């Protein structure tokens, strides 16, 4: 377990630019070592800004996009064509602009592809096992004002699921109510975990997560990358952090 680092940017747009540049460098370095990096994407508004920024800078990088594998930390259990899907958002802002191999994009099965969120979670887990996606090079996670990460919400039963890679989530306080999320066990196998946080409504969650304590109250407390854990946040979200 690594001690979390904190990187504070002036605003959401400089934050998005820095995360994009870190992501491209990290992928280039992994490919330079002969590896095929697996990247975990997140949903949410700052993620969308970051995806656009990565797309804008992608052609200037030396990343070989045919050797990058894409996953999601969580997904909303809605039909495949729904704009509410995290995958839909990431495809339109980023993935559709890149020469990725379609076989290397692993979406969480949608509500018109499988019958239940449970089935979706188990199919997604099976794909991760079959591809041997043990450890993401980078897993990006947005953080909610209640301290949730992926679709692991405070006090939710999914927080205690330890024997699965992905879990079905119902009654999510953030709509839509049905979701699929990686478990803490799967999240914490990532080499780098990057929390992406922007905005004044996140100050309490960020301060509480950094303070430590029970992950049932603030799920972000339960997350650590094996090589690094970095809070990439803006001034508005950092206003209660002693610096
Ligand atoms: O499906 C989702 O919505 C998520 O993956 C969720 O965990 C999100 O990342 C956070 O709620 C932060 O979202 P914002 O950046 O929009 O606040």
From TrEMBL:
Keywords, sorted A to Z: Hydrolase
EC category: hydrolase
GO molecular function, one term: 6-phosphogluconolactonase activity
EC numbers: 3.1.1.31
Signal peptide: none
Pfam families for this protein: Glucosamine_iso
Catalyzed reactions per annotation: 6-phospho-D-glucono-1,5-lactone + H2O = 6-phospho-D-gluconate + H(+)
One GO process term, biological-process aspect: pentose-phosphate shunt
Keyword match Hydrolase: yes
Pathway involvement of the protein, from the record: Carbohydrate degradation; pentose phosphate pathway; D-ribulose 5-phosphate from D-glucose 6-phosphate (oxidative stage): step 2/3
Every Glucosamine/galactosamine-6-phosphate isomerase domain range: 11-231
Similarity field: Belongs to the glucosamine/galactosamine-6-phosphate isomerase family. 6-phosphogluconolactonase subfamily.
Database matches in NCBIfam families: pgl
Purpose: Hydrolysis of 6-phosphogluconolactone to 6-phosphogluconate.
Protein name in UniProt: 6-phosphogluconolactonase
Originating species: Nocardioides piscis
Gene: pgl
